[in-house]
């Protein structure tokens, strides 16, 4: 573990990303303390510029506090990112493991199924799903999960294909372990590192996807999200730039942090790769 | 973003006609011949044949090409148009219209009384539900001679004249429609009317062009040579086009309310909020009375009292429009200023709900209602967000559901909603535009009927009385009484009297002169300087 941390720490960007991420988490956790009450409450006059009348980041077209919206929105964005990634991992890992371990026609069938999903542009597909199931937080998470599992399935399948013929797997088979036990206790732990790296990037793209949906007015209308803030600020950008800029920065910083952390995880989990990259640079 | 870029390009492609002019203009300036008036049309209508399409953009543009027998002043008095004069019999059943002489259709054919009879009895009666409801009261409609039309009603109907504006019953050419399918006749794609401007060109997604009709029946008019309606899909591009002088006039919902304060500051632009007296759109929170506890008048009254209408007008609509005081807009005939809904008072609203037996639960709410924001643009979503906060103050949780325009109309039409927002035109007279929302005989699975399902025999009787009375004083009595009942019962929670500002360059003269705003012929509009 300390070895892992040491390797992670060597990547400066990753450490910065982790700090930013911790701050975003703190902001989400303490949103109700920092900004008590609902972020939908009208706190002041509309279009108050940042820094005036106690509005740190200004107010929106209804006099709502943009800073409160960003803090409360952090919860939704992180929650959507985490839940939809878990759901996508569940689908992707299951299908990938089945395909990679069993091989043969099962592999073919699962991969054709996966490719079918991969051929549909993911954002358009997500819009379609949300529009069909009416925009609620559940349908948004569902849509993001449905469009983001195929890469997981492919990565997991590739890992399983290479691991299943290794000696330790053969040993387990000879010992008479059940297939499920082999998959879960022997192969999966050895395939974890690419999954961990991939999932940190998936959280980032899920946050982006949710923001894009909310921006288009396809978010849950009862939840304050970053995408909603930008979407509602778009048409008044000439009057109130702060309505779009600050939530945009929040998304940018968070997604960047997640990507940096993902990079760091990749370095820490694949020391050989990291050294090669270090050498090349 | 893609939209705005396309809009900018469309605006940039327009020839920069008439950009320079002196700003200082005195009123009552002598009309000047010539010039092109560029405006905008939002959204682009499917066709411009009035009657075949009755949506806002068509009603704004088509009266340049088509005319009614009359039009209306801001106080809703009839003004002569295709009818030079008219008489009404003392019992209110017979109307005789004398038509203007030397009126020609754009294809050169003469306009006669036969066209009027055809338009009323066949064209609009078949196409428009609104016209059908009124024109079925006609017993006979005949051309006494080529310039005289006589109409006899089965019973007296005082608001009858209000149906003869171009937006309600434009006169269309019989020789191009009779015997054909009105919706697919060739004239639908190339409108032929009697108006001051004739249809020239329509590049879909780009512009509609109309040119001066040289044989127009008013001598010396119209003053403008050309009218161009640009199609600019993005609201910020529309504002830019207006600010840069590429278009000289914006109407209806071309400009977002939050842009109005900035436009008021510009010395060359005039922001006019008049011209909506005939339509008088009234917005309200539409309640489905089949959903408990919305059938309880005390609940509805408490919800109404929890809403700060001045906030809605000042903060959301930036001062454009005014708070509603009841079911009839103040600009509609027979409005009774004494019948007023209870004032904004959150404390009393809470007390009313407590007394009515809807206590707050542990989480602070009394009950939850679903709410569908009106999908007609951002401002309506903001309104629903405000309402959710207002309802929270009295312990009612509003759960917002997003939907698109088609689903909204379907769900309201099928009574599949709990609460939503609606706004409805009043057409000058409560019998034409108010009655339909409250009488139990009009509970239908059709939008803009009594979809809420409110039913009160007394209200039914009073509206019927007002409908059939021949004298205005009798009608006023019935309408005053019904307004007093309705403000107590609050069947729908009226919010604001909407008005859509017309913003135009000050050198464009005579823009708003009637109660129909920009939905007029523009034969007297000119560009000074």
From TrEMBL, chain A:
SUPFAM superfamilies: MetI-like (SSF161098). The chain crosses the membrane at residues 12-35, 76-102, 123-147, 195-218, 239-261. GO terms for cellular component: plasma membrane. InterPro entries: BP-dependent_transpt_permease (IPR050366), MetI-like (IPR000515), MetI-like_sf (IPR035906), OppC_N (IPR025966). It is found in: Cell membrane. The keyword Ligase does not apply. It is a multi-pass membrane protein. It comes from the Bacteria. PROSITE patterns: ABC_TM1. One of its GO terms (biological process) is protein transport. Its main location: membrane. Residues 74-262 form the ABC transmembrane type-1 domain. Keywords: Cell membrane, Membrane, Peptide transport, Protein transport, Transmembrane, Transmembrane helix, Transport. Belongs to the binding-protein-dependent transport system permease family. PANTHER family: D,D-DIPEPTIDE TRANSPORT SYSTEM PERMEASE PROTEIN DDPC-RELATED (PTHR43386:SF1), OLIGOPEPTIDE TRANSPORT SYSTEM PERMEASE PROTEIN APPC (PTHR43386). This is ABC transporter permease. The lineage of its organism: Bacteria, Pseudomonadati, Pseudomonadota, Alphaproteobacteria, Acetobacterales.
UniProtKB/TrEMBL annotation, chain B:
GO terms for molecular function: peptide transmembrane transporter activity. GO terms for cellular component: ATP-binding cassette (ABC) transporter complex; outer membrane-bounded periplasmic space. Gene3D superfamilies: Dipeptide-binding Protein, Domain 3, Periplasmic binding protein-like II. Residues 78-421 form the Solute-binding protein family domain. Keywords: Signal. The keyword Cell cycle does not apply. PANTHER family: D,D-DIPEPTIDE-BINDING PERIPLASMIC PROTEIN DDPA-RELATED (PTHR30290:SF38), PERIPLASMIC BINDING COMPONENT OF ABC TRANSPORTER (PTHR30290). Belongs to the bacterial solute-binding protein 5 family. This is Peptide ABC transporter substrate-binding protein. The lineage of its organism: Bacteria, Pseudomonadati, Pseudomonadota, Alphaproteobacteria, Acetobacterales.
């Amino acid at each position: 573990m300390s070895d892992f941390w040491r390797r992670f720490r060597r990547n400066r960007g990753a450490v910065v990303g982790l700090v930013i991420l911790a701050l975003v988490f703190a902001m989400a956790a303490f949103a109700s303390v920092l900004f008590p009450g609902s972020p939908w409450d009208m706190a002041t006059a509309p279009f108050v510029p940042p820094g005036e009348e106690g509005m740190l980041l200004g107010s929106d077209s209804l006099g709502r506090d943009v800073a409160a919206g960003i803090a409360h929105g952090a919860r939704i964005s992180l929650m959507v990112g985490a839940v939809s990634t878990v759901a996508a991992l569940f689908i992707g890992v299951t299908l990938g493991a089945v395909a990679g371990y069993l091989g043969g026609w099962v592999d073919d069938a699962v991969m054709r199924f996966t490719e079918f999903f991969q051929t549909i542009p993911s954002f358009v597909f997500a819009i379609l799903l949300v529009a069909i199931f009416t925009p609620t937080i559940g349908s948004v998470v569902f849509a993001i999960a449905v469009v983001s599992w195929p890469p997981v399935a492919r990565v997991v399948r590739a890992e399983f294909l290479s691991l299943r013929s290794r000696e330790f797997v053969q040993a387990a088979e000879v010992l008479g372990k059940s297939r499920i036990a082999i998959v879960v206790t022997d192969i999966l732990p050895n395939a974890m590192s690419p999954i961990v790296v991939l999932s940190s990037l998936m959280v980032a793209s899920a946050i982006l996807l949710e923001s894009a949906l909310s921006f288009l007015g396809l978010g849950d209308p009862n939840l304050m999200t970053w995408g909603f803030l930008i979407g509602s600020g778009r048409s008044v950008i000439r009057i109130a730039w702060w309505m779009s800029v600050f939530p945009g920065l929040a998304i940018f910083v968070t997604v960047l942090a997640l990507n940096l952390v993902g990079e760091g995880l990749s370095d820490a989990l694949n020391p050989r790769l990291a050294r090669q990259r270090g050498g090349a640079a | 973003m893609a939209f705005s870029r396309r809009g900018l390009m469309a605006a940039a492609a327009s020839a920069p006609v008439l950009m320079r002019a002196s700003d200082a203009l005195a009123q009552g300036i002598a009309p000047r011949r010539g010039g092109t008036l560029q405006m905008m049309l939002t959204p682009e209508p499917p066709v411009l044949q009035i009657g075949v399409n009755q949506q806002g953009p068509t009603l704004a543009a088509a009266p340049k090409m088509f005319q009614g027998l009359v039009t209306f002043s801001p106080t809703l008095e009839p003004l002569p148009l295709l009818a030079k004069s008219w008489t009404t019999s003392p019992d209110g059943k017979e109307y005789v219209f004398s038509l203007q002489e030397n009126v020609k259709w754009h294809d050169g054919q003469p306009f006669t009384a036969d066209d009027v009879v055809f338009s009323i009895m066949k064209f609009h009666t078949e196409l428009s539900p609104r016209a059908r409801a009124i024109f079925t009261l006609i017993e006979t409609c005949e051309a006494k001679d080529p310039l005289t039309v006589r109409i006899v009603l089965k019973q007296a109907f005082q608001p009858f004249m209000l149906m003869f504006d171009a937006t309600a019953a434009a006169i269309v050419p019989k020789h191009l429609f009779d015997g054909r399918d009105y919706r697919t006749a060739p004239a639908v794609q190339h409108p032929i009317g009697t108006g001051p401007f004739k249809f020239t060109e329509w590049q879909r997604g780009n512009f509609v062009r109309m040119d001066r009709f040289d044989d127009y029946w008013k001598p010396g008019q119209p003053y403008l040579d050309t009218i161009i309606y640009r199609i600019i899909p993005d609201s910020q591009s529309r504002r830019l086009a207006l600010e840069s002088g590429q278009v000289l006039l914006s109407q209806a919902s071309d400009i977002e309310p939050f842009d109005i304060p900035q436009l008021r500051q510009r010395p060359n632009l005039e922001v006019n909020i008049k011209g909506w007296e005939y339509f008088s759109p009234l917005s309200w929170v539409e309640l489905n009375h089949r959903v408990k506890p919305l059938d309880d008048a005390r609940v509805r009254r408490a919800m109404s009292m929890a809403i700060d209408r001045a906030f809605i007008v000042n903060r959301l609509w930036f001062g454009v429009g005014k708070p509603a005081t009841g079911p009839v807009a103040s600009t509609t005939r027979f409005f009774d200023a004494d019948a007023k809904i209870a004032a904004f008072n959150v404390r009393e609203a809470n007390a009313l709900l407590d007394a009515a037996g809807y206590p707050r639960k542990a989480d602070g709410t009394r009950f939850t209602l679903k709410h569908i924001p009106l999908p007609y643009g951002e401002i309506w979503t903001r309104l629903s967000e405000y309402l959710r906060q207002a309802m929270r103050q009295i312990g009612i949780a509003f759960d917002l559901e997003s939907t698109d325009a088609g689903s909204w109309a379907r769900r309201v039409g099928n009574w599949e909603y709990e609460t939503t927002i609606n706004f409805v035109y009043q057409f000058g007279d409560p019998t034409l535009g108010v009655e339909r929302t409250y009488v139990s005989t009009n509970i239908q699975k059709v939008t803009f009927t009594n979809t809420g399902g409110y039913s009160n025999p007394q209200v039914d009787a009073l509206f019927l009385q007002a409908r059939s009375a021949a004298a205005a004083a009798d009608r006023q009595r019935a309408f005053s009484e019904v307004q007093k009942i309705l403000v107590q019962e609050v069947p729908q929670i009226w919010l604001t009297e909407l008005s859509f500002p017309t913003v135009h360059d000050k050198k464009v003269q005579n823009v708003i002169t009637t109660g129909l705003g920009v939905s007029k012929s523009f034969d007297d509009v000119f560009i000074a300087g």
